[in-house]
């Protein structure tokens, strides 16, 4: 385990996908679990974390709402200098329109308060209630310009709809105009797709998250969203949710689909689908501290497209940072991986 002070090395270790939830939101999730009107995935995921007697989910939940001494002690123990905080999945995206707006504002205020209290240890991303685009734009502008938050967290689909849908364009345009990235984070699959995953016990982080969020990111690309909003920047965790491995096939099949006119949704793009991952999208290593996968992602997308994340508290492993420090990188590459890319993408202050 590597816990030496950041002054003893030439870089800060910045973890870029680190979850938080106000206790009030946890309580609201518990209330929703007592009702019948919740998605299958929400009941599977939050039912496990909030109602299981197993120590692993209990430890996760006990850490989620803490933005003080315990979280900082955990960071110190693991060798993390700075966390970029964001509202945990599924965030606001399972709530009513009014509740989503109110809980987004609460979470943003709490994260901003923590950043003010610990400016060298925390930065934060803003949450919004996506179903009410005007209020979402207003809240994102407040969170960025007044609270100083550094991006927008989107916990993937919004009740089965995706960010390529026209109703979300004003929110994404606002993020682009504010020059902050959108962090596309997983949640469980929507009811229309989840049954085979739940049946096999594969609906969560083991595979369902990647299937759902990889689909979401690919929809954003193939819909032409990045052509319509050319200054939109997106960050996605878990080394791109499997897409980097499929880029050659995606490009090949997309070209054939455009030529054949098979699908109304598939139109010509200004670039190959794979090229958007090199021009508009950055990856983090959250939950994927595995050298072969990191090396592959860097090789196909570029070293400047892959940065570090831990996925705290869901995947809090004390030896992970030591494993990442041991990657066969030059000192400059290690600086970029842990610090430089994150500072540029999220426009973090140099501390």
TrEMBL record:
The keyword Transport does not apply. This is Amidohydrolase. It comes from Microbacterium faecale. GO terms for cellular component: cytosol. The keyword Transmembrane helix does not apply. InterPro entries: ACMSD, Amidohydro-rel, Metal_Hydrolase. Transmembrane segments: none annotated. Residues 74-348 form the Amidohydrolase-related domain. Gene3D superfamilies: Metal-dependent hydrolases. Keywords: Lyase. Signal peptide: none annotated. One of its GO terms (biological process) is secondary metabolic process. It holds the Pfam family Amidohydro_2. GO terms for molecular function: carboxy-lyase activity; hydrolase activity.
């Amino acid at each position: 385990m590597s816990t030496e002070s950041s002054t003893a090395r030439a870089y800060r270790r910045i973890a870029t996908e680190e979850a938080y939830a106000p206790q009030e939101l946890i309580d609201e999730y518990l209330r929703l679990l007592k009702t019948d009107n919740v998605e299958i995935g929400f009941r599977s995921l939050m039912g496990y974390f909030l109602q299981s007697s197993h120590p692993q989910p209990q430890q996760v939940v006990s850490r989620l709402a803490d933005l003080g001494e315990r979280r900082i002690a955990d960071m110190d123990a693991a060798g993390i200098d700075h966390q970029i905080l964001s509202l945990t999945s599924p965030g606001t995206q399972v709530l009513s329109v009014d509740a989503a707006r109110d809980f987004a504002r609460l979470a943003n205020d709490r994260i901003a308060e923590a950043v003010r209290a610990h400016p060298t240890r925390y930065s934060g991303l803003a949450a919004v209630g996506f179903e009410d685009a005007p209020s979402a734009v207003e809240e994102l502008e407040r969170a960025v310009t007044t609270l100083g938050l550094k991006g927008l967290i989107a916990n993937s689909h919004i009740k089965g709809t995706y960010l390529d849908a026209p109703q979300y364009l004003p929110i994404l345009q606002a993020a682009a105009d504010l020059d902050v990235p959108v962090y596309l984070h997983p949640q469980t699959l929507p009811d229309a797709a989840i049954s085979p995953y739940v049946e096999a016990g594969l609906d969560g982080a083991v595979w369902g998250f990647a299937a759902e969020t990889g689909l979401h990111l690919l929809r954003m690309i193939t819909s032409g969203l990045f052509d319509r909003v050319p200054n939109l920047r997106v960050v996605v965790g878990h080394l791109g949710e499997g897409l980097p491995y499929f880029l050659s096939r995606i490009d090949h099949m997309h070209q054939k689909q455009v030529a054949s006119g098979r699908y109304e949704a598939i139109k010509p793009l200004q670039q190959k689908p794979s090229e958007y991952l090199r021009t508009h999208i950055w990856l983090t290593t959250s939950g994927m501290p595995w050298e072969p996968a990191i090396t592959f992602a860097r090789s196909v997308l570029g070293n400047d497209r892959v940065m570090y994340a831990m996925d705290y508290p869901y995947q809090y492993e004390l030896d992970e940072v030591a494993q990442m420090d041991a990657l066969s990188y030059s000192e400059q590459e290690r600086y970029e991986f842990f610090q430089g890319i994150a500072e540029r993408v999220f426009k973090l202050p140099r501390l």
